[in-house]
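Supplementary notes (optional reading)

For those who missed the lab, this is the record we used. Protein: RnhA. Length: 1190 residues.
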Amino acid sequence: LDETPVVHATLNTLTNDFDLVQPTEEWAPEKTQEIKFSHKEPTATFRLNLDIPEAPVFNQVIDYSSFREQEVIPKYDDIMTCPEDTDYRSPVPNVPVNQLRAPYDNVEKYLYTHYELMKHDYLIPLRNAVKGYKEDYAAIKGKDISAAMEKMQPFQKPFRLYEHVQLNAIVFGARQPLYRISFRLPFYVRVQWAQSKRLMPGTLVLLSKDHFETDLKVATVVERGEDPMRGTNRFEFMLDLYLERDNDDLPLGFGDPMLSDKSTYVMIEAVDGYFEAYRHVLKVLQNVKKDGLPFAPYIVDLSKDILIPHYAARKRTYDINVFKRSKRDDRWPVDILGNWPEYQTKMDKTQLDALKTILSRNLSIIQGPPGTGKTYVGTYAMRVLLNNYDESLGPIVCICQTNHALDQFLEHILEHNDNIVRVGGRSKSELLKLHTMYELKKDHERPRGISRLYRSRDEVMKKIRDTMIELYEQPCVTVDFVESINGLRPRQLDSLKRAANKEKNKVAPSKTLDDSDDDWEITSVETTVKKTQPQKQQQNKRGGGRNNVSNKNDMWAGGNPNVIQEVKEKVTNPVEIWLKEAIDFVFDDNVDAFINEKNQDLLEQTKGLVFEDMIEDEREVIEEEEFQDIQQNFKGEEPDARFKNEFISIGKFYRRLTEVEPGERPGRKIVNYQKSEKPKTTANFDFFDDPQEDEDQFAWDDRHADRGSDSVERWIKEDDVYMWPLAARLKLHKKWIEARNKRLEEILSQHMNSYTRISKEIRGVMVKHEARICRQNRVVGMTSTAAAKYHDLLEEMRPRIMVVEEAAEMLESHIISALTTSLEHLILIGDHQQLRPSTAVHKLSEIHGLSVSLFERLIINQFPFTRLSHQRRMRAEIRQLINPIYRDPPLQDHPQVASYPTIKGMAHSLFFLSHNEDETSLADSASKINEHEAKIAAKLSLYLIQQGYSAQDITIITMYAGQKSILKKFLREERKSTIDTEPIQISSVDGYQGEENKIIILSLVRSNANGQIGFLRAANRVCVALSRAKHGMYILGNANLLCDRSELWNEIVVNLEERPEKMIGTRLPLKCAKHAVVTQIQWAVDFVEVEEGGCSRLCKEKLDCGHECILRCHPYDHDDIQCKQPCGKILECKHPCTRRCYEGCGSCLTRITVRLPCGDTMEDECRKIRSIARAPAGHKCPKCNAPLKA
């Protein structure tokens, strides 16, 4: 998480953010270490702030329903017109404020307010992006390139820049035509695409050809891939966009064959504000009817008269036993509106109260502080409902903020009920794989009528392809077109055709495909071309590799890989003959490769009109989930799906006809206009007749348009058109081309609209089909983003019950957009004192109340709710850290936490290691890092692994993305230099919401002379950070700074200081379990004292062999330790063993001297002499060679 600008301490914050200590003078850290870090007594209670303006601070709204007619996609004025903004303490002009402590006047005003807040949350970052770019461009205009690039460095810019943007292809996606563009990164930018947030699917991008002076195009990214497609060189990338809005008649120049290669665009994206998370929510809000908002009496009017769910009115008695039954009559009946008997439910009192709240109220709110089992209560309630109702109740819809949380929730349900549908394509759970919509549809027949719609869309695609071929690849008009517009008189047409017939009847030498293709063309046709066996064999030899399997990729630029190509004789065009050499033919280098190698894979190399392969899963809309999940996973279900396309080339290369010299093989010379100064054209209008030059040399210019000899008006009366000079012919043909192109553009637009319309019909049929599948199951799960995106599916399902997990983390508009008109029961589960919803614009969060969830707003207004009270996660001393947050009523410990073990190798299971080492900032961002903390965290985590903990038992968390990066770096270094362990998890605090682990190391990072603590002032984030550990927690930070800047932190530190065993200090105490020696750690280098995981003493523990261990103190056992001391055991020969202890005794190696029977002496190892003595036969004296005797 990169830190947002720090708001001044006197600013009012939202609910549950504590008042900050008001600074009286510039803060400076203490020069000397103090034993006591806190500087005042803790306050009895914390005063909550709710000083957000309640009255709208914008122009008077006459019609609150006007938002329904607005377009979700921003217009030119929306982005370019920036209202005059005041300082950071003032509201955004003309934007309403969320009413936190009062009911709304009516549903229209409520919907209007949340629509405008959501709209501006994505719109303001776009305005800032354009404004930032224009300011930078104005500053560097006219300067040298090096200064320009230095100015355009991306450090803390509100935009990301992409250059040399050009149209490459028209791609036909599942819902509408798309544009494939090529782009380049600025030379100073290097991107790790797999981990990058750049250009994620669903991102809104802005394009302009005049640096946003007058031209603005708005598009959304549809396909980027984990690694973007490459263009013609290694600097060029390719991307699929949907053009949402364009102020030109020809989008990105599409439909304009006269477009020059120099007509490139710049493209920018805003750093903040992920559009996909807003688009569908805004559309749903627009479609909510005045009298169609579910639960409006509670949400809008803040009524506290809560009703029983309508479906439960006739069935008040429930059996709440969800466990396996030993007897058929082992039931636990309860009256959901009466008093409940005491059953052995394994729940505490507040959990039972929560269960009763869920079953008896049509709008239920359950607050679950950390570790209190809110997910358990939610799944238990769902099991009760599933057991007490049959399929007639309809599916229960489960909504979660993140994919990870949704998978966890559904896995709990799956243990007891497998009738589950998981909507959305980003589940990583193997258990849920067979329950995804994609898999379930395989077991159902295709919906009726869908094949007909697919065929209709295929026909439209063919029409678009044919129109594109004529528009881009036919440089001159046909004689039929000339007739249709009365471009020539009848006699003139006859002269044109007669000359063409003469040309056609000329005897031409026979040619093959390898000869010039002047008289031949390759086209895509539906009919099969018969090939002889030798032809097939030759083609297979040329193809090779994967292309031998199928001929799908055999295609001309303009062909369809799903149809077979046909070589046919080219039809003579009289107009082409009439215009002679002035014709330029569209040509792509890859086409030449096709002629020589039929099976070349053009799909990855060329440009043009593209169609999605008609595979079932590819017809599904790309699933755009919440921001965090998309940035981590770009792959679809088909990794290579983006290459399964067919297209028509939008060429940038041209061939020019020249006369063939005598004896020369007929052919066409290639003219590459990318290297030419001439503008790109399809028919060359850059020529005029010049009597001083050869007849074949032309150069047409508007300056010569009125020359009498070339005037069309002069020659139009001449019936024989072949008497006209070429300049006059070209001038008239240019008018024909313009007329033809205009007509084709209109036809093309109609076809594209038809494609979009049919695609919508397909989606409508599929929605009904998917809804039937959902209704056949008992539980349907999706994320909040998917709930808005597939709102039509939810409506078609007609659910009566909806459970929203993580409700306090969702924006209010996200929950509203998930509600359906059929809903009778809404269950909200969460904790508003942990993380709030995230917003793109800080001011909308702080001043306009956008980050206050529906969950929190209802609780603020005393709406009845149930709070769970007993936590089962943390040791008691860790739980006490969050006492200031959960004070009334206090959070209590379940008896099971008393049995949690202490942390091995540590003097305390909780400790705050304080320091004064300054933070720094990353070079290319505002994120903060603290190397001192990162080094200690890395050393400490590996020390804990030495104590016997696994890497999965330890998590390091921090609030800064920069600190995450440097932690990974130091951990990699430690793993290489010490022990080979599995990677230790490192997470952001926000990303670790809802998670837990045995041991948590918290790096707070902030330590500076300015007194800034950034994220650490937010009580919600502090609550999450301090409540993730089960057995042990170790905090690294500057306690002096925190106490001086935050009353919350001051009370936390006071609590640590006043405990019998002081759990805060400037040295972290490690305790050796073997010798009870305490080693004090202040710096990372101090861990050298415990390099074996124990203390600085020798181990000296008795080994099985009887020796003492001579290693440095270590916590691991001695099973794998080799004792290398001399053995010393007395062998059978009475000699001591001379081997090392771990080698085993074996035979005696002691050298001895014996007298032989011959009188000589012999010296050797004892084992050898004893061997000879046992069997002397065959042995001789080494000196006299006398035989030895027994």
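If you only remember one thing from this example: The CA atoms of residues 9 and 23 lie 8 Å apart.
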